[in-house]
Each structure stands twice: as structure tokens, then as C-alpha cells.
Design a protein that fits this description.
By secondary structure, this protein is of the alpha/beta class. The protein has two domains: 267 residues, Rossmann fold; 72 residues. Helix content is 36%, strand content 15%. Strands 3-2-1-4-5-9-8 form a seven-stranded mixed β-sheet. A two-stranded antiparallel sheet has the order 6-7. It is globular and about 65 Å long. The relative contact order is 0.09.
Length: 368
């Protein structure tokens, strides 16, 4: 299943879709038979003119724009009689650019049917050029919403440029990519970024920074406070660069104690997810001579143990049918996972965890 199939799963071609900001890479293009309405910041002619000079951009893929949005709520760009009529609201790598994430999600909520779905592809800071930036919080979202922010502020312009890194020239990579990141912009350009927030025209930037659990936490807290009536239906990680989120209308009601437990769990999960970035730190910080080595390797080992346990559990689920556990399939999945694990360094602990997990599932002799 490719990326598009994964994101648009279960949607028929005749479903009524609205895709926001597809530019030259639509997920559900009309030319392929999708019943898609496009919202973008400019007309198709203007977008073609904008991207004609960009090397490698196929401007023939730019779709006719149905609704031009140039400020305010996205929902205001769509006639009121079409509010609540779309089966899906699709936005790939759009939400992070918005100045006001609450208004953006409120617009999505307004446009979809009661049983509709919001489909988002979101950059994962662990796997892209936002690697060194801090996750956005509900407080950040509320500040932007209450200030009715229509332009990115000075902090965003500074952070989005001065903390950008690339690996091999790429803006995104797998979570276990150990190549050293290169800081993209010299620091002597810092003062130039401070003036961007004061310009009369909109200047784009990555504004919202997420890992999967920080995104879940923001949605949970905004819904609990009454700013959104949405719930996370599912979040799935991609191998590189991003994660995917499917949202539905109707927040999950929680008692006060249940809400606190859920919030605490997600806060803990954020720490776990951020710790996975340790796999990508420069070798010098992990050397035996460095004072941080023991601490870092201990965290990395715990992270790898957790991942190996998840591999065992996934193998159990994939090997279990109505007749019970398919032991041959389970052993094959564990063997395949083991072959992909390095034999040295903190990751090597996964071999032990996989063996222990297999023994617990199969009995004392995993080869029987």
C-alpha cells in the first residue's frame, strides 16, 4: 500500500472531498477521477506562474482551484450552503504552515459531514528538518487563536530558519538515519529573520511542530476546553518525514480524573517519542570517552528494548487467527526482525529481547 492509498483508504472515488493546499502534488487529483474540490491560496494560473521557474516541478499536476483562500477561516472561502457536505477534508503538509491551528481545525470541522473524516499528513520533528525545534503546545495554539494571528510572529520566523537542518540535502529522513545533520543557514543571517514578522505580506514558515503524542495531546486539550469538537480516530507513523492522522467529529467526553490520566499518559509518551531522536545524535556524544555516553546509551538501550517488545507483540497479532497462534509464521516474523537489527551497540539488546519474547510466546523451546 503506497502513501496515497494509505491516507485515502476506504474513500470511494465519488466521495465528496475537499483538499487544502495541494499545490503541484494533489493526493486526490480530479484528473484521476476523484470528486475533489480544491482550496488554495491562489488560482491555478497563478500557481502555474509561481512554480514554472522551480526546477523539477511538474506544473501540469496543478489542479483547477475551486475556492481561493487569502485570509480568515478556510470555511469562509467555501459557500455556506456547502458547509457540512464533504465526506473528507484532506491536508498534506499544510497544518504546520498555518498561523492559527485552532481556526484551521475548526474550519475542517465545519466543512465535513457529521460522519466525515479529516485526513492529515503532518511533519514528524524527529524525522525532518524541524529536528532541533521544540514541540508546539496547547498554550501556543490558544495564544495564536486568541490573538487572531494572521501572520507568523518573530519567534516562528527565527526558529523555523535558524534551527533548520538537512541530511544529505534532504528535508526528511527515516528515524534511524545516523548521518549528521547540517545546519542549513549561517547564524549571521539571524537578524534578517527578525524583520519578517513586520512585513505587510505573508511570509511562510513552519509554525507548528509535532510528534504524534504531542499532536494527540493538543487535540485532547483543545476539545476538553471546548475549542474543538473533534477526536483522534487514529494516528499512524510513516517510515520517514511524517505521520498521518485521521480525525472525526465528536470529542470523547471524560470525567476530570480520566482526563488527567489521559493527559499524563500523553505527556509521558511525548518524552518517549522525543528520546528516539537519541539514535541520530553525532557519534562524538556517544563515544566511550564522553561524559554523556553512559546516560545516552542507557536511554537508547531502554528505547530499543521497548521497540523489540512492540515487535514481539506485533508478531503475535499478525500470527494469530481464529485457530490460535500460527507458530511457524510467528517464528518467521521474529527471525526477519532479528536479521534487520545491528549486532553491536545499544540496538543489539533487541536480539535478547526478541529471544526472550519468543520463548515466552512459544514456550521454553522457540524452535519446536
Amino acid at each position: 500500500m503506497n502513501r496515497t492509498q494509505r491516507l485515502l483508504r476506504s474513500l470511494p472515488r465519488d466521495a465528496r472531498l475537499v483538499e487544502v493546499g495541494p499545490s503541484f502534488a494533489p493526493l486526490a487529483p480530479k484528473r484521476e477521477g476523484w470528486n475533489t474540490f480544491v482550496i488554495d491560496h491562489a488560482s491555478r494560473d497563478d500557481l502555474v506562474a509561481k512554480y514554472t521557474a522551480h526546477h523539477g516541478v511538474d506544473t501540469t499536476r496543478i489542479e483547477e482551484v475551486d475556492f481561493v483562500w487569502q485570509g480568515g477561516s478556510l470555511a469562509d472561502a467555501v459557500p455556506a450552503d456547502q458547509h457540512g457536505t464533504f465526506d473528507a477534508f484532506i491536508a498534506s503538509h499544510v497544518i504546520e504552515h498555518t498561523t492559527d491551528v485552532v481556526t484551521f481545525l475548526q474550519a475542517a470541522e465545519t466543512l465535513i459531514r457529521p460522519d466525515g473524516v479529516i485526513i492529515l499528513a503532518v511533519p514528524d520533528k524527529r524525522k525532518c528538518f524541524d529536528f532541533y525545534r521544540h514541540p508546539s503546545t496547547t498554550g501556543d495554539a490558544l495564544a495564536a487563536f486568541l490573538e487572531k494571528r494572521a501572520r507568523h510572529d518573530t519567534r516562528t520566523h527565527f526558529e523555523s530558519v535558524m534551527r533548520t537542518i538537512h541530511k544529505g540535502g534532504a528535508p526528511g529522513w527515516p528515524g534511524d538515519d545516523t548521518r549528521e545533520g547540517v545546519i542549513a543557514i549561517p547564524f549571521d543571517k539571524a537578524h534578517e529573520q527578525l524583520a519578517l514578522a513586520g512585513l505587510p505580506e505573508y511570509v511562510d514558515a513552519h509554525n507548528w511542530i509535532f510528534v504524534p503524542s504531542s499532536f494527540r495531546l493538543m487535540l485532547l486539550e483543545l476539545a476538553a476546553m471546548g475549542y474543538l469538537d473533534l477526536r483522534v480516530d487514529e494516528i499512524a507513523e510513516a517510515e520517514a518525514t511524517e505521520f498521518y492522522a485521521w480525525l472525526r467529529r465528536g470529542r470523547v467526553p471524560m470525567e476530570a480524573a480520566e482526563l488527567q490520566t489521559a493527559r499524563r499518559h500523553l505527556m509521558d509518551r511525548i518524552i518517549v517519542e522525543l528520546s528516539q531522536q537519541l539514535r541520530q545524535l553525532p557519534e562524538a556524544l556517544r563515544s566511550e570517552d564522553g561524559p554523556e555516553a553512559q546516560f545516552l546509551n542507557g536511554i537508547k538501550e531502554a528505547d530499543f528494548r521497548t521497540e523489540a517488545t512492540q515487535i514481539v507483540l506485533a508478531a503475535v497479532l499478525a500470527s494469530t487467527g481464529w485457530r490460535g497462534l500460527n507458530r511457524r509464521k510467528f517464528r518467521r516474523l521474529i527471525a526477519e526482525a532479528s536479521r534487520s537489527i545491528p549486532v553491536s551497540g545499544p540496538a543489539a539488546v533487541q536480539h535478547l529481547v526478541l529471544l526472550e519474547g519468543a520463548q515466552k510466546v512459544l514456550g521454553s523451546d522457540p524452535a519446536d
